[in-house]
Known about the structure:
CATH class: Mainly Alpha
Number of helices: 18
Radius of gyration: 20 Å
Protein name: MFS transporter
Helix content: over 70%
Membrane topology: Multi-pass membrane protein
Shape: globular
Largest sheet: none
GO molecular function: transmembrane transporter activity
Main location: membrane
Domain Major facilitator superfamily (MFS) profile: 17-394
Number of domains: 1
CATH architecture: Up-down Bundle
Order of helices and strands: HHHHHHHHHHHHHHHHHH
Amino acid sequence: MTDNENTAPGRQNWRARTAILTLGAFAVGTDGYVIVGLLPEINKTLHVSIAASGQLVSTFAVTYALLSPILATVTGRWPRRQVLVTALVLLGLGNAVTASVNNYGLVLGSRILAGCGAALFTASAVATAAHLATDQRRGSAIAMVTAGSTLALVLGAPLGTVIGKAWGWQAAIWFITAIAGVIAVAVAVLLPAIRLDLGVTLRQRLAPLTDRRVLRVLVVTLLAFVAIFLPFTYMSAVFAPATGGDQARLALLLMIFGIAATGGNLLAGSLADRYDARRVVIGATVGIAVVFLLMLPVRENFALVALMHALSGVVCFSVIGPQQHRIIAYAPQGGAPLVTSLNLSTAYLGNFASSVIGAVILSTTGSSAFVLPVAAVFAVAACLITWRSARPTDERGTEPAEEIGKPAAAAG
């Protein structure tokens, strides 16, 4: 970023520019979430079980988790605008292939390509938004980008499910492809040239993993997101007694969850700014466990299931923002983009693990109801580890948020 862009006048448009990144996060989030509502249609078209079709979610997630630091290293010297456009192009190409083939193996492969685009986009978007904002507004900038993912739950996934029901699941995937293309053009035209990362090596990117405090935060993120995505990925199976296999009802549950998740994300961000983020995570994970257990006896009542999904959305999306706050406190000098990237990768790893664990549960128990108590156990484990962790402190004596917008070349 140039000197002029670093001045206050140069940052006056940070909200408008961050909004573009929010829309990009919306496209990425929709791509990850919409498969959940399309699983029944995908099963029929590809002639696979619901456990097998669930691996389309896991393939996307594990690609993100494992390749995110590698792709970030390869593109480290690129301007952020170039990285973000490339990411959206990869996302669009992956989805174009997904929508064009009817072979399960090829569809799995295309999800890897889309996952590469998602991995490249999200962490870079978070760091770019934080750099665009003033020091006092970086928490809000991060929350804006994260809100794109919750907007995907509110609008993207339900709309994609409705499109899939009306015109086939491939039409929903083409819908995402079109969104990615439009946003790529917007990023190319409207985002300024920004350089945040001057040649950070893969070793430097992974260096925070040698800090036990960082590892504890990452373990909590992993366990919490296994808990969150276990019922979410297999929503169509877990709540089939309430939906009766009706995709319109499934889309409504996704929308209710997404609206509540948006409120939970914003509320958690505000609470993390005012209070100890550790306490917010403890409260959220306890809430996740309680809500999932309460879902068990009401699985056959759609009205009560909808109510539980509203509560679930609030507590589930009260985790990632505070976790970002916690892990930034342990970042090395200038290394906040590195640790936030690791945290997001770990969240996607939890998404991957949840789809695999869910597939095992469905294949071995014969009842999707077991998904809920297993998810509650993971949430409790995340809560206990957070409770036993010391409150984060910045040993350098500065506000951790100040580091997120700085170059990360010195990290490690």
